[in-house]
Amino acid sequence: MDDRMEETTGGLPPDEASRRDAGVIRAGFIPLVDSAALVAAARLGFAEAEGVRVDLVRQTSWASIRDRLAVGHMDVAHMLAPMPIAASLGLGTPAVPMVVPMALGLGGNAISVSTALFDAMARHGAVTGAGPAALGAALKAVVRERGPGQPLTFAMVHPFSAHNYELRYFLAAAGIHPDRDVRLVVVPPPYMVEAVESGQIDGFSVGEPWNSLAVERGAGVLLVPKVEIWRSSPCKVLGMRADWAERHPAKVAALLRAVEKAARFVDDPANRETLVGLLAAEDIVGVDPAIIRRSLSGEMVLRKGEAPRLVPDFIGFSRGAATFPWKSHALWFYSQMVRWGHAGLAPDLQATAAAVYRPDLYRAALAGAGAVMPAASAKVEGALGGPLPVGAAGGRLDLGPDRFFDGRTFDPDDVAGYLRGFGEEGAAGAG
């Protein structure tokens, strides 16, 4: 489970000056269904229509994406939503200022457990599809039963990932401390199924198609889809170094227009089979088209042999402002970094985190391009129980429900107050 590279273009990156002259953008991605908008922009003509060429660079691990983007081997990347924030704050590596001018969709990942762990949970009342509260209670019973000498091992894809923070949120809400009661490890997405099959891990949080592939092989049970923890929540973004974005404003704008139009295309069910075929290709995701079709349709099989169940809004690429880089998303991830001791709570750090997400670049690029854009740049997260029309430019915009399963809300203007709401744990994080 290393960081070896798998590139669709091969070889070393061309000279920066020649790429600039040729209008080429070198874009890293991980083999996941939620890379769809970027892949479609590169492969279905959307980028060319905007006067640029996107060369896709397939990588195995998020660490490789982060490091190669930081040193300039790639220009932009399909990135974990918290990763550019962590890079800008210098968490885990030397600080490299990055910007997020666009999100790449909402949802698309899940928490799964091994079949053996689910069977143990079933002895405490767990049934598939029971929801995060009931399933969390059954998991807590198993953790207590095993005791501190036999901690369960859960994998996530990177320390600074939506997967890590959603897994922690789910565990903590169930009364399971993620740093004391279980063991958390990092496994790159393509290796999750192998890790659970071999018994190295008991559960994991990862994007599709890897949950569904574990189910199909009989190795795992899809426990909790991301949308049941936090509806309409971000997972991946389009990230780039801040200096690159400053040097190439025309390229950035062209790329945003291309990806936004591609996102509308891939969100249309009429184009699903085209997208399934594109993603199933060996040099993109490279798994059975039927597995990819599940996550795109939301018809998820939770355990091998069970009938598919519809998970509403399992993944979305365009509707509900899915590509908009909300500053409140950036600040929620920052709040979780503080909550779990990954960052301090300080005005300058909070300002840096908020500044990574750039709705100004999004609006400037997409003005007049047919995109519908929110009038606001931040919102209270978790406040919507159903669709809500909001102020927008370019047409009508309905935001989807965005509730957290435990009923909490996040006000981006009061990060410290939100953290205090978690009691001693949150107060400790907030200092």
Give a brief outline of the structure.
It is built from 20 helices and 18 strands. The chain has helices at 16-22, 36-43, 46-49, 62-70, 83-89, 115-122, 132-146, 162-173, 192-197, 210-216, 226-229, 242-247, 249-267, 272-280, 289-297, 327-339, 347-356, 359-366, 415-420, 424-429, and strands at residues 24-29, 53-58, 76-80, 98-103, 106-107, 109-114, 153-156, 183-186, 203-207, 220-225, 236-241, 299-300, 309-310, 315-316, 373-374, 388-390, 392-393, 397-399. A 5-stranded mixed sheet has the order 2-1-3-11-4, with helices on both faces.
Descriptive notes:
This protein is α/β, with parallel strands linked by helices and 431 residues long. Helices cover 40% and strands 17% of the residues. It is built from 20 helices and 18 strands. α8 links the parallel β7 and β8. It is globular.
Keywords, separated by commas or semicolons:
431 residues, alpha/beta, 20 helices, globular, five-stranded mixed sheet
Unreliable stretches (pLDDT < 50, length at least 5) are: 1-20
Shape: globular
Helix content: 40-55%
If you average the pLDDT, what whole number results? Answer: 94
Report on the biggest sheet. Answer: 5 strands, mixed
Identify the strand order in the major beta sheet.
2-1-3-11-4
Count of helical regions: 20
Strands, count: 18
Radius of gyration from CA coordinates:
20 Å
Tell me the distance between the termini.
Answer: 36 Å
Strand content: 15-25%
